[in-house]
Each structure stands twice: as C-alpha cells, then as structure tokens.
Specification:
three-stranded mixed sheet, rod-shaped, 122 residues, single chain, mainly beta, four-stranded mixed sheet
Length: 122
C-alpha cells in the first residue's frame, strides 16, 4: 500500500460517577454492617451510554453504627463490571448517600409480677 497512511486512534475511556440508589433501615445492633442490601440498595453509574452492558459492584455499609435517620451509607472498593467495562473509568471508587436509618432496639415490657403465673416464673 504505497502512498497510503494508516492512522490508528486510541479510544479514551469515558469517566463515569458512581452513586448509591435505594434506601435501607435496620434495628440497632452495634455494627455498621448492612445485610440484605442487594434487595434495597444498588451502586449505579452516572454517564453510562444507554444499553451498554456494564454495572458497578462494591462493598456497602453504614458510615457509623449510631441510631438515627438520614444515615450516611458508604459504598467502597467500587469497580466496573460487564462486557463494556474497558470503555469507562470511575471518577471515584467510593460513593455516599444519606439514605439509611438505624432504629432503636425494642425490649419487651417488664412483666407485672403480681400475677400468680409470674411469681412462679411462668
């Protein structure tokens, strides 16, 4: 191919931003862990081209273990997975959202030990 030039161009991956979608709540257990989050929370990627076969994965937890509403949820170690993953790069490997709640642990009411059954330990 004399007289012809071959130009190769490199494709630059598109930058996408991870975010957390959904909501979660639990009863206080002293930990920042989230069990069953896959049913109510997901890590999404802003900027993905429609119909592209990619998604995000990572670890999700509460920012702390204290009781409260609008608790911060943290997604860490986020990565891109799927067929088109090489077409994208993350702007961050973490994401946060104030979408959690940790409620007070309820204890059963104290028994009224005036009854005959209670006095016998029943």
């Amino acid at each position: 191919m004399r007289g012809q030039s071959l130009y190769l161009t490199a494709m630059t991956p598109k930058t996408v931003t991870p975010y957390i979608e959904g909501s979660i709540s639990k009863i206080y257990d002293g930990s920042d862990s989230i069990d069953g989050a896959e049913n109510t929370l997901s890590i999404r990627l802003e900027g993905i081209i429609e119909d592209e076969n990619v998604s995000a994965s990572g670890k999700i937890r509460y920012a702390d273990s204290e009781i409260g509403k609008d608790k911060s949820i943290i997604a860490e170690d986020i990565g891109i997975i799927g067929e088109g993953k090489d077409n994208y790069i993350l702007s961050s490997t973490t994401a946060t959202a104030d979408i959690g709640a940790i409620g007070k642990k309820e204890y059963p009411p104290e028994r009224d030990c005036c009854s005959e059954y209670c006095k016998k330990g029943i």
